[in-house]
Write a structure and sequence with these properties.
Rossmann fold; alpha/beta; 3 domains; 6-stranded parallel beta sheet
Length: about 400
């Protein structure tokens, strides 16, 4: 593996930044068009992200970030980790990297035309394989760690739905146990599973769902929101998956998880179905971290969308130092302030400052992208250090910028 990039390569890649700013999405769209012509490669991707265009935008941002920081690779460590974890989830293997290299260089050449000189294309080829080798090295380490841990496995493993629980009008939980009856890897609270399954209207669906229970070595629980405009995944799990249905999943992955040894107060902040990894964390905290001060702040529309409320409050009573606060943005008839929820409206940074150990705590956030755009940026602007802001969101890998 090449240890360093040549100075000439660094200079040429950085010189291409203006072109990436102007044409980045066009390059990544062209690249995916080339990749998806191969059925073997197309099957690796979440097609919903392709159809929405979100993956194209995310990759364009990642390529631009790489070019801008190619002489400061330390800044890319968090991005590399997140991509490596995604690759574990989707079972991306070393033999898949050459396909991406060919598609990327071909896309750059086509989109930039005469501006894509031989020197530029050669520099990007070298830069791609340099980063690819870093990713492959990290992915190898992760896979070896999984393989040497009790309950670990490689690739896709079948799990059967053993229970199905309606948590609210829009969220349903599924308990998943391995078909082989053997142990399962103890995930880190906050991580997700990547599934593949066939729905009546679409085959080989791939979806990520956060694990919503504490690690136990026996089963996983996922809690899924039914998306009326979704691409088939949530509809299938709500409407067709039954006790006995078999789903395949790769091992738990993700770089968003509760610290093994928390040292500061913790604020868990979630929006909507973003509560799922928070419940995994709260169950773990209730069982293993009795000394921790925890503030769980959750926002949802109303009681029809509010899931696992009784369970969350039971965990708070068990632990003794967990404070639970719920905001309803649109209470429905029958919702009672002080009973079903604590506040009407939306969670805000000023409220967090006044009602939580804001300046001393670690923040764990999960929710839809608009929710995280508000709070990741808002917390940064309020003076919270980056290493105290931990977040997960549903969708392609990207970075939320403090605007």
């Amino acid at each position: 593996m090449q240890k360093t990039l040549r100075a000439e390569t660094i200079a040429l890649v950085k010189a291409s930044v203006p072109a990436l700013v102007a044409h980045g999405p066009a390059i990544t769209s062209n690249m995916y068009s080339r990749l998806l012509q191969d059925p073997h490669i197309r099957a690796l991707f979440n097609q919903a992200n392709q159809k929405s265009g979100s993956q194209v935008q995310a990759l364009a941002g990642a390529i631009l970030g790489y070019a801008q920081n190619i002489d400061n690779l330390e800044a890319l460590v968090p991005v590399v980790e997140r991509i490596a974890q995604k690759h574990i989830g989707y079972n991306i293997l070393p033999e898949h990297y050459p396909y991406v290299a060919t598609a990327l260089i071909g896309a750059i050449a086509e989109v930039l035309g005469d501006a894509a000189t031989e020197e530029i294309l050669s520099a990007w080829g070298e830069a791609y394989w340099f980063l690819a080798d870093i990713l492959k090295g990290r992915e190898k380490v992760i896979r070896e760690e999984i393989a040497h841990t009790d309950g670990g496995w490689s690739g896709w493993r079948p799990f059967v739905v053993s229970e199905k629980i309606r948590e609210s009008e829009v969220i349903t939980s599924l308990i998943l146990r391995p078909v082989d009856g053997q142990a399962v890897l103890r995930h880190r609270p906050g991580q997700y599973l990547t599934f593949r399954f066939d729905a009546p209207d679409q085959v080989d669906l791939k979806r990520n769902y956060s694990i919503s229970c504490a690690p136990n070595g026996e089963y996983y629980r996922i809690s899924v929101k039914r998306e009326p405009n979704g691409q088939g995944g949530s509809r299938f799990l709500h409407d067709y998956a039954e006790i006995g249905t078999v789903l395949e999943t790769t091992p738990p992955s993700g770089d968003f998880f509760l610290s093994d040894a928390p040292k500061r107060p913790i604020i868990l902040l979630s929006g909507g179905v973003g509560l799922t990894p928070m419940v995994s964390m709260m169950e773990t905290i209730a069982d293993h971290h009795s000394e921790l001060e925890i503030h769980y702040v959750h926002g949802t529309m109303n009681s029809t969308t509010h899931a696992m409320n009784d369970h969350v409050h039971a965990l708070a009573r068990q632990h003794g130092r967990i404070s639970v606060t719920t905001f309803y943005s649109d209470p429905c008839e029958g919702d009672v302030l002080g009973k079903t929820h604590d506040f009407t409206g939306f969670v805000t940074i000023p409220w967090l400052k006044e009602n939580t150990p804001f300046d001393q705590a670690d923040f764990y956030l999960c929710g839809p992208k608009p929710f995280l755009e508000v709070f990741v940026g808002g917390l940064s602007r309020a003076g919270i250090a980056p290493d105290r802001i931990h977040y997960e969101f549903f969708g392609p890998t990207a970075t939320l910028i403090a605007a």
